[in-house]
């Protein structure tokens, strides 16, 4: 059972609470080299058009995820991922958690 599977119910609740369209994991959390000191790489798409409330929602979600997993979360925003090489690399390996 993966780390995200262990927390699936709580993840679903957090995503609904923070207006998440989709949440996906990528990076070491999906590989054999994931260890206790590793951070968790996630990419999120939040359904909020207002810039002020978007920022509040983003940081509240990041904090809640760090509390849930008891580790650092690297939370990328889907809409801000402009580097085509990075986008392609993430899309090739990401696993959808919610959405």
Specify the number of helices.
4
Which fold name is given in CATH as the topology? Beta Polymerase, domain 2
Estimate nothing, just give the exact number of structural domains.
1
Q: What is the second-level CATH architecture?
A: 2-Layer Sandwich
Low-confidence regions: none
Order of helices and strands: HHEEHEHE
Strand content: 15-25%
Give me the Rg, rounded: 13 Å
What's the CATH class, please? Alpha Beta
SS-based class = alpha+beta
Shape: globular
What is the mean pLDDT? 91
Counting DSSP E segments of at least 2 residues, the number of strands comes to 4
Keywords: ATP-binding, Magnesium, Metal-binding, Nucleotide-binding, Nucleotidyltransferase, Transferase
InterPro entries: NT_sf (IPR043519), Polbeta (IPR041633), Type-VII_TA_antitoxin (IPR052038)
GO molecular function: ATP binding; metal ion binding; nucleotidyltransferase activity
Cofactor: Mg(2+)
How would you describe this structure to a colleague?
The protein is of the alpha+beta class. It has one domain: 2-Layer Sandwich (Beta Polymerase, domain 2), CATH 3.30.460.10. It is 43% helix and 23% strand. The chain contains four helices and four strands. Strands 3-2-1-4 form a four-stranded mixed β-sheet, sandwiched between helices. α2 (8-17) runs antiparallel to α3 (51-69). It comes from Candidatus Electronema aureum.
Describe the secondary structure blueprint for this structure.
Layout: H1 3-6, H2 8-17, E1 20-26, E2 40-46, H3 51-69, E3 73-77, H4 84-93, E4 95-98
């Amino acid at each position: 059972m993966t780390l995200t599977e262990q927390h699936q119910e709580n993840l679903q609740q957090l995503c609904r609470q923070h207006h998440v369209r989709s949440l996906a994991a990528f990076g070491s959390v999906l590989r054999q080299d994931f260890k206790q000191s590793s951070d968790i790489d996630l990419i999120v798409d939040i359904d909020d058009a207002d810039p002020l409330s978007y920022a509040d929602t983003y940081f509240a979600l990041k904090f809640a995820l760090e509390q849930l997993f008891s580790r650092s979360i690297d939370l990328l925003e889907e809409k801000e991922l402009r580097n085509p090489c990075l986008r392609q690399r993430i899309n090739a390996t990401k696993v959808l958690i919610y959405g």
